[in-house]
Write a structure and sequence with these properties.
This protein is of the alpha/beta class. It has 2 domains: about 170 residues, Glycogen Phosphorylase B (Rossmann fold, 3-Layer(aba) Sandwich); about 180 residues, Glycogen Phosphorylase B (Rossmann fold), CATH 3.40.50.2000. About 45% of the residues lie in helices and about 15% in strands. A 7-stranded parallel beta sheet has the order 3-2-1-4-5-6-7, sandwiched between helices. The chain has a 6-stranded parallel beta sheet with strand order 10-9-8-11-12-13, with helices on both faces. Helix 4 links the parallel strand 4 and strand 5. The radius of gyration is 21 Å and the shape is elongated.
């Protein structure tokens, strides 16, 4: 435990809504163990509410600044501001959370200033960009892995890595058996969840095709109902503003797991939300969009993982249908959903396998595990 005689300062960097939530949980866990720590950094409203002084809000309307070419100037201004802060203030530990395109720069500035750096959420170098392992070793003192196999993968490459569990599953409900729900399931009354993700690029590329899929399903199952999940009120407004003619749904804010528990089937953007849906034992299809040209010329050559969605990577097989990248036609997705809905035995089996898959990930409380590591690094 850190000494009570010294005032410690921890700098935390987050650039997405999910990372903002992870870091807020981490701050609370650290404060419970050592109340005197000062937190400062870049992030969003949840970090601020947890007690972190924000130099910049990187999670609001201008979030994912590293994704938008028009925001390149702001991106470098923030990095420079962080570098100046490191030079003029005593910082005992830097914690960077996810968003490697942004946080590799933050970690570089930290190491240049001689500050120990903890990576909370290991970058998925095992899937692509494996050559960046050297940079990661140079900029990272300790690596927190959210997937069990990552500890060995990074450890074999010279990293001090540890599996900490997954913060998304810290507070979610792992479903019990949903056998009765699917054994008596009638597709005509299906309840669907649409989860287009939190990033602006995801919403831009997936929200309209998800609505088109919903309209096609409504044609086949007239009594079907739909709920769309938005990470916050701002994202809900974006989804509402982009509704296509004829589409109707209700909206649920910041409740992926709860929504998945209350529906029969989910259509999900690839990413961490798929684990929350899996924890709910909810059958799903997974989508992601990419430039056709970039995928064929670059993506398919640098992506090393056989599967691209977390659920299928963890299971080592195509447990759920994944359409990654999705390009133009929604028909294969609609057909895949229909095949699952018409097979009650398959729905029961899939639901049980999804909950079984996620239980080991929820055995550890990630925020507590990372807090323990961070406090040890302060000693």
């Amino acid at each position: 435990m850190p000494s009570n005689d010294k005032k410690y300062r921890v700098f935390i960097s987050a650039a997405e809504p999910s990372a903002d939530a992870h870091c807020a949980g981490l701050i609370s866990a650290m404060q419970n163990k050592s109340p005197g720590i000062e937190f400062v950094g870049v992030g969003g409203p949840k970090m601020a509410q947890a007690g972190c002084e924000l130099l910049e809000n990187t999670v609001g309307k201008a979030a994912m600044i590293y994704k938008a070419f028009s925001q390149v100037v702001r991106f470098y201004k923030i990095i420079k501001r962080i570098s100046r802060y490191f030079k003029s203030n005593n910082v005992d530990l830097v914690i960077v959370c996810d968003s490697p395109s942004f946080n590799f720069h933050v970690a570089k500035a930290a190491k240049k200033a001689g500050i120990k750096t903890l990576f909370f959420v290991a970058p998925q170098l095992w899937a692509w960009a494996g050559w960046r392992i050297r940079k990661l070793r140079e900029r990272c003192d300790k690596l927190c892995c959210l997937l069990p196999f990552e500890q060995d993968w990074f450890g074999q490459r010279g990293m001090d890595a540890v599996f900490v569990g997954n913060p998304l599953l810290d507070k979610v409900q792992i479903a019990g058996t949903r056998h009765e729900q699917y054994a008596d399931f009638k597709p005509k009354n299906a309840r669907f969840a649409l989860m287009p993700g939190s990033r602006a690029a995801e919403i831009d590329s997936l929200w309209q095709p998800m609505q088109q899929i919903a309209l096609r399903l409504k044609e086949k199952y007239p009594a079907a109902t739909f709920v769309a999940v938005a990470v916050d009120a701002g994202r809900e407004g974006i989804l509402r503003a982009a509704e296509i003619p004829g589409f109707e749904c209700r909206y649920s804010v910041d409740s992926v797991n709860k929504t998945a528990l209350a529906v029969d089937f989910s259509i999900v953007a690839s990413g961490s939300a798929t684990l929350e849906v899996a924890a709910a034992g909810c059958p799903m299809v997974i989508m992601y969009q990419s430039s056709r040209i970039l995928w064929h010329w670059v993506g398919r050559w640098i992506v090393r993982s056989k599967y691209l969605s977390l659920v299928n990577i963890l299971s080592g097989r195509e447990l759920v249908p994944e359409f990654m990248p999705y390009f133009t036609s929604i028909e294969p997705i609609v057909e895949s959903i229909g095949q699952l809905l018409e097979d009650n035995d398959k729905l029961v089996q899939l639901s049980n396998e999804l909950t079984k898959l996620t239980k080991p990930l929820a055995e550890k409380i990630a925020s507590r595990e990372v807090a323990k590591i961070a406090l040890e690094m302060l000693c």
